[in-house]
Design a protein that fits this description.
The protein is α+β, with helices and mostly antiparallel strands and 80 residues long. The protein has helices at residues 2-32, 50-55, and strands at 37-41, 59-61, 76-79. Helices cover 46% and strands 15% of the residues. The chain has a three-stranded antiparallel beta sheet with strand order 2-1-3, with no helix packed on it.
Length: 80
């Protein structure tokens, strides 16, 4: 039904917002500690997407880390 669809979309938007806020806070905490680069890591299983697979192991300047490419992305960064 329309209500179920709307609630599902709202839930996805709220999840995406929470992930975005958490990621930004993580990067800001790294910056505050003087970290200037991070390395991208992804879970190595059959569920990872091609974008995440291609980013695995790459090093990014903390100011140029790309956003996670999709909802429920399980990728994370480690400070360098």
């Amino acid at each position: 039904t329309e209500i179920e669809t709307a609630l599902r979309y709202w839930s996805q938007q709220a999840t995406w917002f929470a992930i975005d806020v958490t990621d930004k806070a993580t990067l800001e905490a790294y910056k505050a500690k003087g970290i200037i680069k991070v390395q991208w890591f992804t879970v190595k299983d059959e569920r990872r997407c091609s974008t995440c697979k291609a980013r695995h192991g790459k090093v990014y300047e903390i100011t140029k880390v790309p956003p996670k490419p999709h909802l429920n992305c399980r990728c994370f960064w480690k400070p360098m």
